[in-house]
Amino acid sequence: MARKVAIVACSQLIYEKKRNSSREMMVYEVINELLKNAGISKADIDSFISAQNDYLEGRTISNMRTVGPSGAYLKDESKVEMDGAFAALYAYLRILSGTHDVVAVYGESMASCYPPYLPMTWTLDPSFDRQNGFVNEISAAALQACSYMYKYGITEKQLAKVSVKNLENATKNPYALRKINNIDIETVLKSRLLYSPIRALNAYPLTDGACAILMASEDKAMEMTDKPVWIEGVGTCHDSYYMENRILADCDCLQLAAKSAYKMAGIKDPLKEIDVIELHENFSHEELIFYESLGLCSKGKGGEFIDTGATLINGILPVNPSGGALSANPVCATGLIRIAEVVMQIKHEAGEHQITNKKEVNIGLAHGQNGICAQQNIVFILKGARKCEM
Amino acid sequence: MRNVAIVGVGMTKHVSKRRDVNIPEMVYEAVEAVFQETGLAPKDIDAFVTGNMPAFEGINTPELWGGGYWGAYRKPVIRITTGGSTGASVAQGAIYAVASGVYDTVLTLAFEKQSDGDTSVGLNSTSLADFANLNSYGATAVTTQLSSAIGLFVYQATSYMHKSGLTIDQIDKAAAMLRRNAAKNPYAHLKQPNITAEDIAKTPMISYPLRFGHTCPASDGAVAMIFTTKEKAKKITRKPAWVKGLAACSEDGTVLGQFGGGSINIDPAEQRSCKFAAQKAYKMAGITNPEKEIQVAEPYIPFGHQLFIYFERLFLCKEGDAPKLFDQGVMDLNGAIPICPSGGVMSNNAIGAAAMVRIAECALQIMQKAGEHQVTQDVHTAVAHGLGGSANLNVVTVLGDSPN
Amino acid sequence: MAKREEVKEVTTNINPSYDWSVGYYMERFIKEFKSNKIFGVRCPACDKVYIPPRMICEQCFKKLSDWVEVSSEGSIISYTIGHVELDNKFGGLKEPIEPNIIALIHLDGSDSHIVHQIKETSTDEIRISMRVKAVWAKDPKGYLTDLCYFKPI
User: Among residues A1, A273, B193, C147, which is most buried (max CB within 10 A)?
Assistant: First the structure.
């Protein structure tokens, strides 16, 4: 590929249960923050890609009135109605095509406007699953968790370890919504049972929030920052809707997406070569399954892997040092937040939740998912410049 | 930009109700058609880009349910939705996907199954959130008037008529012309081969100056296109259509803006964003004199008066000249710049698909596959346009008959 | 900068009514419930039998037309006990009247899993690989609701 694309800046708003703001103000604030962090004005941006979902917004053509607040007035603007990481993919494709040099991507939603649970059921087959009313995001996740635990002997404690790790990490992340100081396995196992075995602390919190990133072609990136974070690889995959084709104890779709991304980035041994991972885990058990799908450990060993402590913030391969989706999940923004967090880690700008036990954090993996039980997955491999290369 | 070729188009017949199929099955017909046309199969497709107007059918992101029906099993899929211009935005997403070099062959789909849905709620909810506060003043009529499509376009029509001198009977004639064109298009919804301006004039006024006869239908339909690289195109078809230029531009929502707070976009007939998008697309395509260099145009015309507005905003004539040129027959099927030889959105409107059908129709004209509604002159360059949102999202694509 | 006041909120109802066409495949599937039968379709290429029936086998990309009756008995592949349910009005979660059991069921003769509810068993007894069978409405009319639930055999 001739062109290289980098992420030059990102911005996040503090995630809240109920933001005292209209969504337009929220978009305006996150974009202004982005412009400030990038040191540019909106005139320097060629195009804007937003990630919003009409049902979550309660508005048809939800991007029609965020044109102004996002700075896209009289600019090329489009909307990807998926998780924000997919919007980042579209921005990446636009820059690679050569017709756009600088693209801003933002994603947002407000669960306080309407919780995402029902809109997720509207993705179901209207003639069967939706009519029966048994499948929803949490019940489907619970079926997956149950089948995963049964197939590989994963325990509730191992699931709880994911929540403990992420919510503990979140206490050092000023943006995170759900932070629980001194959280332990007991606390997780005592939280409200939703659909067994998924408890409230195993599931994402309802969140209002927005995130934005700025991508640029190589020339522009070098002008705008001395710490560009390069996109080395991306892979995405869309799996079957039907439960039998999506083997619930594994996530083959993520495995395929990761394989594509690794190939593009030249990664042969993810456990050794990657320094930080930010996963979009709506539920604790998903993170364990994702360890396996990403090739960090073999199939069925996700529980053992977290037991080793490898994915703690001071472990050999920290996963979700930001707290992940379990700490804040503004649907449509979450995948973008994963990208932003990896960028921050690579630039050494993650503040209190910066990974410090490594010589340098240079290669990161950011993951986004869409659909019930991660029906669609996307993986980005991001890389900073080694000091000796600059 | 890398050369991007269109090697195939597949469409379903657009009708008012397809009761025999559900959404994925209906879209499958368009996919099957384009695979048959090109001799390709899902294994040859590197990515799918899809979109529709989600609110109408009440299905959230339908490709999650239907993707497998369309060959997208375990493939990359991107969903793009931008209201009325969705089809064009989706096609542009596919063009960027191929131009980027990441994906070589991309299948793009757009569709709508309006008979399954609740169109009036879908349309109202474009603005409900912004005008809900007006409801407390009892202004419910305002919401319906200004948020549903016709309410807004009525202002566009009257403004344009005032500036250009366009008359209602010219709109009647334009509507009749489009419906007669559609009669030659096997995929169109409203085909009326013998319809006259007088027949249109007899239809009741919805809201001055727009009559029922000036309005688009609500259709069930789907369209699929395959974009690929120059190297692969050669192996698939003898005469592909080529993407020469593409651009989109968005401006402030019309008239009432956000929360009823007013807008910079007071005159919906101005369509500044359309002009910007057209300028950029033409520049990319190397077109300096569109009036002479474009042989076919497919603007997005859900209402008859827009034929004149977009003819001007796509720079196919000087501002204000469109009514005069229409009377001279310039826009006829055998005129100098035929407008919507397919019959346009006025005859065929599955909303999510409509803007992509415009691009598909231009491609068919260039590939000389438009059958009965093929225009008489050789088509070297065509321009397709999509309009969405509160008349504030414009998407322009220029196609040609040779690569760069 | 002045302290931001509480943003005003307006709550509005959006009440769409939909009229989904189910297509011939689902139509037959649902109508056969009247005779207490469950039908699937078989893919000629991979031989898999799908429930609910559908027009296309996604993996082979073939159009399906071979109807096969499958058993109304099967095994539980996975299950969950719902201690919450979705609030259809305000969209959040609320307490159900009593915990309900939802399971992923593999019907004998099919290669599919469907999600349905399990009754006539306790939350302590439910387990994976339990054998279950369909319980039909007393007066089936050819509606989806004719298949009421599954119970242990």
Answer: C147
| Two structure tokens written together for A300 | 């069925």
DSSP H stretches of helix in B165-265: 168-182, 197-202, 230-236
The pLDDT of residue A297 is above 60: yes
User: Which architecture, in CATH terms, is A5-114+206-223?
Assistant: 3-Layer(aba) Sandwich (3.40)
Q: Which residues of A touch C19 (CB under 8 A)?
A: none
Question: Would you say B10 and B33 are in contact if contact means Cβ atoms under 8 Å apart?
Answer: yes
The encoded tokens of residue C35 equal 């005779």
Residue A175's Cα: distance from chain center in Å?
Answer: 14
Residues of C with Cβ-Cβ distance to B122 under 8 angstroms: 16
Is residue A58 scored above 50 in pLDDT? yes
The pLDDT tens digits for B359-381 are 999 999 999 999 999 999 999 99
Q: Between C6, C81, C92, which is nearest A195 by CB? A: C81
Chain B, nearest residue to A372 by Cα: B64
Do residues B227 and B6 touch, judged by C-beta distance below 8 A? Answer: yes
Please count the CA atoms within 13 angstroms of the CA of C90 that sit on its side-chain side.
Answer: 4
Residue C83 and residue A117: Cβ atoms within 8 Å? Answer: no
Contact A47, A77 (CB under 8 A): yes
- pLDDT for the residue A235: 98
May I ask the CATH class of domain B5-118+216-400? Answer: alpha beta
Q: How far apart are CA B392 and CA A188, in angstroms?
A: 49
CA dist., res. B386 & res. B248, Å (int): 9
Question: pLDDT of C113-140, one tens digit each?
Answer: 999 999 999 999 999 999 999 999 999 9
Q: Which residues pair with A103 in a beta bridge?
A: A47, A215
Run of H or E including A366: strand A363-370
Tell me the residues of chain C between 25 and 64 that have a Cβ less than 8 Å away from chain A: 26, 30, 50, 52, 58-59
pLDDT-derived band at B140 (thresholds 50, 70, 90) equals low
Which one of C115, C123, C127 makes the best mutation probe of the A interface by having the most chain A beta carbons within 10 Å? C115
* CA of C133 vs chain A CAs: smallest distance (Å): 17
Q: How far apart are CA C142 and CA C26, in angstroms?
A: 12
Q: Is B260 left (phi over 0), alpha (psi -120 to 50) or beta?
A: left
Interface membership of B128 toward C (CB under 8 Å):
yes
Rg (CA), chain B: 20
Task: Choose among B80, B84, B103: nearest CA to B93.
Answer: B80
Q: What is the pLDDT of residue A377?
A: 98
Residue A234 has pLDDT above 80, yes or no: yes
> If you average pLDDT over every residue of chain B, what do you get?
93
Contact assignment for B78 to A90 by CB distance below 8 Å = yes
| pLDDT band of B254, cuts 50, 70, 90 | confident
Model pTM score: 0.97
Residue A264, SS3 per DSSP = helix
CB A260 within 8 A of CB A235: yes
DSSP symbol at B9: E
* Of A311, A147, A345, A96, the residue nearest A229 (C-alpha): A345
Q: What is the pLDDT of residues C36-88, one digit of tens each?
A: 999 999 999 999 999 999 999 999 999 999 999 999 999 999 999 999 999 98
Which structure tokens are listed for B100?
Answer: 């980027």
> ipTM for the complex?
0.96
Least confident of A54-63, B25-34, B303-312: A54-63
Q: Tell me the chain B residues in contact with residue C23 when contact means C-beta distances shorter than 8 Å.
A: 20-22, 25
Chains that touch A (3 or more CB pairs under 8 A): B, C
End-to-end CA distance of chain B: 9
Which pLDDT score, from 0 to 100, does residue A390 have? 40
Q: Where are the domains of chain A?
A: 5-114+206-223
Residue pair B276/B161 in contact by the 8 Å Cβ criterion: no
